[in-house]
Amino acid sequence: MVYVLCAMLLCVGIFGLISQKNVIKIIISISIMENAVNLFLVVIGYRRDGIAPIITERIHESVQFAEKAVDPLPQAMVLTSIVIGLGVMALMVTMALRIYHVYGTYDITEILKSRKKAE
Q: Distance between CA 104 and CA 86 in Å, rounded?
């Protein structure tokens, strides 16, 4: 069920990316897609009644540790993805502001019309 929700969230982001003509809305759509992928990675690492993958003396002796421990790799990947996404988001917002200062609008069709007139 959660996988379906991740797929739906990704589809919402893709639809927004394809259908919108406003640069800010496109940036928001990319952010939604990024969050969908992060959620998917977290769901992959989920285990019902899982325990933290920290080995202590008591847990080390337990044979069931490997069966109950949560996989930490997806969590680490999501943390890395969040940091990279923040940098990409800052770059996109900076580029959008620069586009607005040069063309005076966030609408892609108006920007393309302005560029054709300039040529």
A: 26
